[in-house]
Known about the structure:
Glutamine Phosphoribosylpyrophosphate, subunit 1, domain 1; globular; binds 5-amino-5-deoxy-1-O-phosphono-D-mannitol
Amino acid sequence: MCGIFGCVLKDGPAAPLIHSSLKMLEYRGYDSVGIATISDGTVNMKKDSGKIDEVHKILNLDDLPGAIGIGHTRWATHGAPLKVNSHPHTDCTGEIVVVHNGIIENFLELKSELTNLGHTFVSKTDTEVMPHLIEETLKQNPKLSFEQAVHESLKRVEGSYAFAILSTREPDKIICARNESPLVLGINGHGVFCASDIPAFLEVTNKAVMINNGELVILKADGYEIKKISDGSQITREPITIDWTPEMAVKQGYPHFMIKEIHEQPETLRNTLRIQDHYLDLLSTFLDRANEVFLVACGTSYHACLAASYMFSKLAFLPTYPVYASEFLEQHGKSVNIDSTILAVSQSGETADTIAAVTCAQQRAATVLSLTNVIGSSLTRISRVYIGTQAGPEIGVAATKTFTSQLSVLAQLALKLSKKRGKISQDEIDCLEAKLQLLPEMVNIIVTTQEEKIKGLAKKYVNAKVFFYLGRGISTATAYEGRLKLMEIAYIPSIAFPAGESKHGPISLIEDGFPVVFVCPRDDTHRTVIGNIMEMKARGAHILAIIEEGDEEIKSLADDYVEVPKGIPAVLSPIPYAVPLQLLAYYTAVEKGFNPDMPRNLAKSVTVK
Ligand code: M6R
């Protein structure tokens, strides 16, 4: 997981653009940064460990000559986050320069072979084998062009990669290649760009060309050529227009992307309601015919799947199995078959565990359907049918707006399926559809009326050593998501359970002042949840309840409460009820002095298993 960027400009300098583009990719990893350019036949390079701004302050990343260059922002996989392991990496001569996102699985074999041939390695990375492999290929076949040498070398590389490679032999071009790690081109009148993701070049162009697995690209100032790695055959692919504005990818005055993205939810939810009906219809047709349905995802997307399993069951009477993608192979890898249907949910569409689960299912002839926020991502390419979750780029590492968008699309899908199956009355369906339309405004009300209060609660509970999150029914998924948010950005160990399970063990942790967050919409579980609140209170817990506006019963029991507008049906409740929990996590992290956009040890898109 890392961000790569490269550009060939008609007129330089490349370095400032590479620097600003890498900033837009920092969400992909940020433990070191490096840029290399070529000018007058020489490689110029600056790199170091640390975040981009820190390194720039010391090295001035903009100060490199040349109209062609590549850059990298890193999330360490092989080798500690040290300068020596920072990208770009070079061959022995320093003439070939490589940035890479992914993992070269056979790097140890290649490294030992190349070392025996006299190559000197300086880093602990897998990436460094690539420049040496190209150098060796050229040494053994001096007549090969730079492109041919890269092409030959790629045939020896096993694993995942998005490469961008420069050589002083042919200083007018960048060679890129992709296998399993994202790569996209941008193009405008001034040059051509390659990047791990679209926001990297959105400031300079909205014309993008998606690169697929197994493709090699030659970038020159006046255009690009795409070829298949397998046989070198040419591929014609025209740019598409991306309707994300550059403003969508910057903070717009908010201190962090996360809070900006929390505030964007009324708008993103509105966008989810504009999804074309025939996609929902198509997807629900597949689900209707399925013998067994697995809902496969990681992290927050898994919580959306968990909520969806209640939606499908309650609205369409369809039993589904939510499964952590990282467990899918072990749990269902052998039994999944032609009659199985996988609905994979992933914000990025690049999560390695999700892609691995889906690939396994596909190889066993199962039907793969998906929901993702990134059209053109790996997941969309593997899926028989997919739907975009319409949330726009999410930069904050903690998923917020993409979670509520996933839930909205999943709810629409469940309703569509319900209609097909005729399991609930048309009146009920109409009522739920009408409620879905109200959700953007409800979320707006929560954000505008409850934010200050939640800020105060974050201050009050900031020193808590541990938190409990409890909910019943579909609110279990909301509780899990609230717990994940707090843990990942505020680093407070937190525990979430279905409220009913809490008395089967976890309750033993409760002592005076222990904060317990209850997610309690006024649904069929309300009465039982009150019982669970009483159990916790009796043992000294501090109750922070997320309640329906005017729920006097719980207000009288809770130490603190946050109100959510009335009238939300249970199956839709995770959408508004998640929002106060996102805000609580955000303000707790801020109160503790942490940067919620860049939680330690995490990256936005987890492209390693
Ligand atoms: O891109 P995906 O939805 O597949 O990502 C899955 C998880 O890595 C992601 O949800 C992660 O848990 C986030 N940090 C949650 O905020």
